[in-house]
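Posting this for the archive.
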Amino acid sequence: MATTATVNPYLAFNGNAREAIEFYHDVIGGELNIQTFGEAPMDSSPELENNIMHAHLQNGALEIMASDSMPGQDVQFGDSVNVSIVGPDEGELKRWFEGLSAGGTVTMPLEKQFWGDTFGMFTDKFGINWMVNVLAAEHAETQEASQAG
């Protein structure tokens, strides 16, 4: 039986989650919902009131969630997690690659690869690692068939 579960990145930030998720929203589009600690039905310190307790960005099947860390629990950024975007629309994914990498560091330009897809990697200006894979036509057909079945 096929699962209906999805895997989505949940990003943690040190007080700049709003800036990051709004930047992602500006580039990717879709619907963005944000809840601050101050809006939650719990006591929060005044310095947390405007920090993000939960943000959810969705554009079709693409979902990104984010929050700010609690005081004294700073996020340690590393290279063990990447946000991977895969799809067939070269124009859209190229625009996202260029937009999201602005102000960051491109570690592999978005270029045609030996396996047939167009692939690139970067670290955005918030320290988040991204991989973008534009499916070659034959790979896009395979992905569509597996999603339909």
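The domain at 82-149 is CATH 3.10.180.10 (2,3-Dihydroxybiphenyl 1,2-Dioxygenase; domain 1). The chain is about 25% helix and 35% strand.
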